[in-house]
Amino acid sequence: MSTLHFGDGNLQYDGQGRLRHLLSIEGLRERDLLQILDTTESFLSIAQRTVKKTPTLRGRTLVNLFFENSTRTRSTFELAAKRLSADVLNISASQSSTTKGESLLDTVDNLMAMQVDGFIVRHPEAGAAHLLARHLGERALVVNAGDGQHAHPTQALLDVFTIRRLAGPVEQQVVCILGDVLHSRVARALIHALSILGCPEIRVLGPRTLVPPEFASLGVQVHHDPRAALPGASIVYALRLQRERMESHRLPSLDEFHRRFGLTPERLALAAPGALVLHPGPINRGVEIASTVVDGPQSVVLAQVEHGLAVRMAVLSLLAGVPGHED
Amino acid sequence: MSTLHFGDGNLQYDGQGRLRHLLSIEGLRERDLLQILDTTESFLSIAQRTVKKTPTLRGRTLVNLFFENSTRTRSTFELAAKRLSADVLNISASQSSTTKGESLLDTVDNLMAMQVDGFIVRHPEAGAAHLLARHLGERALVVNAGDGQHAHPTQALLDVFTIRRLAGPVEQQVVCILGDVLHSRVARALIHALSILGCPEIRVLGPRTLVPPEFASLGVQVHHDPRAALPGASIVYALRLQRERMESHRLPSLDEFHRRFGLTPERLALAAPGALVLHPGPINRGVEIASTVVDGPQSVVLAQVEHGLAVRMAVLSLLAGVPGHED
Amino acid sequence: MSTLHFGDGNLQYDGQGRLRHLLSIEGLRERDLLQILDTTESFLSIAQRTVKKTPTLRGRTLVNLFFENSTRTRSTFELAAKRLSADVLNISASQSSTTKGESLLDTVDNLMAMQVDGFIVRHPEAGAAHLLARHLGERALVVNAGDGQHAHPTQALLDVFTIRRLAGPVEQQVVCILGDVLHSRVARALIHALSILGCPEIRVLGPRTLVPPEFASLGVQVHHDPRAALPGASIVYALRLQRERMESHRLPSLDEFHRRFGLTPERLALAAPGALVLHPGPINRGVEIASTVVDGPQSVVLAQVEHGLAVRMAVLSLLAGVPGHED
């Protein structure tokens, strides 16, 4: 899975080794990851202007194909596409012909017959975006906006972009990821992206039920005590705690979790001075992170959102074969 | 509340006394109200052209943030924004992250991180738009598209614009407002706007349960008999009767209301010759107003809708700091 | 109903005999049908370009007024309008003021007051689009996107366009329509369009309950045996089998239908060599048609979808008074 080769086994690349889909951080070459991050810089400045548009994808059509609700993700991709001047078609599952028994691939084939140029897909089943990419090949681009346990590679891209931009070279960071690492594809994709970029030390922190010892095989340090995990960390990344986990008895209670692991000002003080606090959102204030930390000076959660828009503009333009933005 | 001062107490103005949000008619200076009405004139002509667009807000992003369904209001603002060439993001509450427990302000902060330029907000709770404006300050514009009892100041603006344009100077009108005045913010905002513009005589008409004597303190004449309220009125404004009121026993029945107060051709004949009939919509035909009056020659309800679009274009462009439309 | 005259009785034409609405194939003049098909050719090439847009309807506003869910139809019209550079307003019934008791015509009048240029209407009741066209006259264009039993004339237009483009002149085709002809307006509209264009032989095939002998009065051959109906057919058109029909006991079972009438490779081999297979979608694979036939070399179902987009662009531009696309 986490190979750096491409070819038949790596759906993200076409026969010439060009990035054609963004499905997962796994399998992404370092130089493509770096190109996305560099292109993101060029798009970041656009959002600061009064006229926040470029003609990059004028006349192209992108489909937001969402089989799960996610206003935040849908809105970011919609805005990214619109600011690139693309036409956007929003299709949500509850309205779609799939309710008439049509399959995902039939729906996609119909949209392809209308000459759409790409799909941004969110689907509850793991592998849905890969299925689409395999089916479409070079005919249209596919961006995975979350499949299965709500993973989407653009999240990891915006995370490492934020770290690189606001904390400095990834090679110099000590990163501590806090929370339900076991069920978080955000965490796994982030660990992959950090590894590709040469992060020297990655720690994961949480209760044994959510951070099992097997994680050490990913090349990370496993911690169950904040006092051991936080010292020296230049980046503290708090994960969203899925309330559903409570029902599976992996957690005693939200209060208990907050008391033992929640990122409070006191715990943050254990980390390196000026350590940055990241969170993928939406935030459970008072659970995985205290409100005062979210709103405090070390928090860069809104910068993550801002960077997320630029990352998506970069990804869409690169996959569409337009190398970047020139003023 | 209804002060003409600005500053800390008046969220609609920035520190330099420039109109930055449109939250309520209360607190709006006469000269700003007049500027909106004058700017509306310039936008009204655009709708008559084949190409109904201006580049006024090209490259800006406006968010329709609707926590209540209102196709009519949402559509008007969406069309207004599109005709100004803005990008529009529609977000409805049922889809939004607020269902994941995220607060209104977190949602807005996330959207601000994507550099959106303004919010058109509809929310069931009174004060939601004010909360947003207080939070955002000069960072983005806020237009109140209805909070609490479905008030929105652009309704009062289009009403006085319609009166001024089709009946003449507001200073020369006698206005009779008919119906559930007690629960109508439309009525209250209209009374304020008419007062600011120097309307010499405003009458309110309805049963005692819906038009209590205390209204006299607003400077209006209180009437319970159409035969006393209508003679001499140059403007008859029928309010939508909320069927919900029936349940609170404030009304015997819709039929009874129509029989005693409904604007029939006979009652309209009591008003001044050629008196104009207005209604904010949607109309309950046969309840507060007879169908023949809605569709009759004195009705200007569709002109109100037309003017509503131009008013919203004017408000959005003025709040965005673009003073108006030049051909 | 199926007259070739125009005037009072033919709502599709204005007083000068210009096509103003597209409501049904019945009543459409041959020369207008041919003009739509010819204009479609010019729009088909646009979809092949990188920039898939023309400024044809820039500054016009079209409303997708959908009182029934139909992602496919809505998306095609939305894309068609956007590629013509029109602004599109999507209004679905569940959100609309009609739930507040406002009538269809009141909703339309309100939208007209906002100077929209046309309506694409889908409504569960037969005649809804006609009602709108009668109400609007020359003030705005109306395209029937399905009323009652899910008929929409653009389907028949894309069908005959596909036949003409991929099989050759309609005058030389033998067409066999298979399935629930009785309840299918798609079938009826197709028969009309084929007749207008001089198709010499049209056959309908299905069980007696769904293809009654009375159909012969439409000038078609009625068949109940595939071995008699298919030989010599150059076009085989499979209709979607409405599962609802099962409940009315008109069909024993889906399996039984497939066994006796379903378009299998064996049955298709009875038709003329290289006969084309069409289907209006969405497809019930394994019911009216076998999956291998849908995906086989004779199937042109995706070409139908592609042509459908170009047909809708042609219809919208012609009804808006813009004669076509010039490069």
Automatic annotation (TrEMBL), chains A, B, C:
Xref: PROSITE patterns: CARBAMOYLTRANSFERASE
Binding site for L-aspartate: 100, 185, 240
Record-level GO BP terms: 'de novo' pyrimidine nucleobase biosynthetic process; 'de novo' UMP biosynthetic process; amino acid metabolic process
Gene Ontology terms for molecular function: amino acid binding; aspartate carbamoyltransferase activity
EC number(s) per entry: 2.1.3.2
Every Aspartate/ornithine carbamoyltransferase Asp/Orn-binding domain range: 174-318
Catalyzed reactions: carbamoyl phosphate + L-aspartate = N-carbamoyl-L-aspartate + phosphate + H(+)
GO annotation, cellular component aspect: cytosol
Domain Aspartate/ornithine carbamoyltransferase carbamoyl-P binding: 20-164
Protein family per UniProt: Belongs to the aspartate/ornithine carbamoyltransferase superfamily. ATCase family.
Binding partners and assembly: Heterododecamer (2C3:3R2) of six catalytic PyrB chains organized as two trimers (C3), and six regulatory PyrI chains organized as three dimers (R2).
The protein, known as: Aspartate carbamoyltransferase
Native organism: Acidithiobacillus caldus
